Amino acid sequence: MTAHRFMPAGPLTGRIRVPGDKSISHRALMFGALAAGRSRISGLLEGEDVLATAAALRAMGAVIGKDGEDWIVDGVGVGSLLQPERALDMGNSGTSTRLLMGLLASHGITATFTGDASLSKRPMGRVIDPLSTMGANFTPSLGGTLPLVMEGMQPAVPVTYRLPVASAQVKSAVLLAGLNTPGVTTVIEPVPTRDHTERMLRSFGVEVQVEDRDGERVIRVHGPCDLHPNDIVVPGDPSSAAFFAVAASIVPGSDLVIENVGLNPTRDGIYRALREMGANIEYLEEREVGGEPVADLCVRHARLKGIVVDPAIAPSMIDEFPVLFVAAAFAEGATVTSGLEELRVKESDRLSAMATALKSAGAQVEENGDGLIIEGNGGQPLSGGGTIVTHLDHRIAMSMAVAGLASEGGVEIDSTEPIGTSFPNFMDLLTEAAS
Ligand code: S3P
Question: What is this structure's pTM?
Fold first, then answer.
């Protein structure tokens, strides 16, 4: 483990470009592998999570390589994935695991899924339940976790499934199983979650029907589906950009442009919340990249004020709460969050990890069952100090790195390695923007 102390920094200035969106990158590789023929992906995130997806797809017959900066996927076609010879190592990646479980559930394949210590604690029952109804068979570890063996069912049985938790991973797992299932597979979403699966499947030629019914989203695919090879451009990851947006907001004198940031309305909650707190974030050159809304963000230092975060916004910023908590620690007044039980089953228990981390850096935090209340210090530097335990969680590491930039004594994190799962050049970009 490589510990690192993030020291107080000068203003963040200039122009930076964050790597490709992680959610979109996973899907681009998976759908490329399901298309019969060659797809080209530009802007793919080359983080460990996405590389775990690529390795698993290769182990099942897809040919995946690079041509210059672009990634090339020679897909095998829906229904033609091969039996993997070895266990599929998912590393730290919940998205790889849950989406691939869905994809394989309707293939006649037996696969073993393994992961690191963090992933091996995360609940898989949420995908096992609907995929079992479709006919797949699972032998998980005690508690419904990895390591896990699954036997897919071909042909699988179509289902109508109402999501009991707001989860794009569960929604996507069922829809991906539906691609190779004869008949109509339906997912009902009481609360909208990120819709990259629906958008990208359409661009691969799949007819995805989405209907609003009594305030719920009803999503249908009619399988078996053919995916046509496709060229995909992956926009920059709004979740990665958020670390820099908060850093520039809290470090005095900052004036930073973050280029090419995806602003899909199911993902942009953090920017809406930061603006409500008084952040100075301007959207420049709004445009579309790869079927997703994108803009360059101009972020200047601002005096933030505490807010009550509406729990309804949570699904559109579910990964950004750790860094929002950091922003809250520098705001004037209290920021109150609730309805965030899901944060306890991410790469770490993010409510507990961030409460402990922020307190040890000098912030005032109260932890409740479903959220944190953070009493901001009105923009003064945090004292900094103690070593932060990251629990193999990239977003805890990067959030506390950001806190360190606006602290007196710096913030040490126990390990920078987790950052490589989603944002391999985070440290380089930080040095570039803060110098
Ligand atoms: C993701 C969905 C979210 C998110 C994760 C990526 C996806 O998880 O936290 O980082 O790509 O579908 P949940 O579906 O568990 O909310």
Answer: 0.98
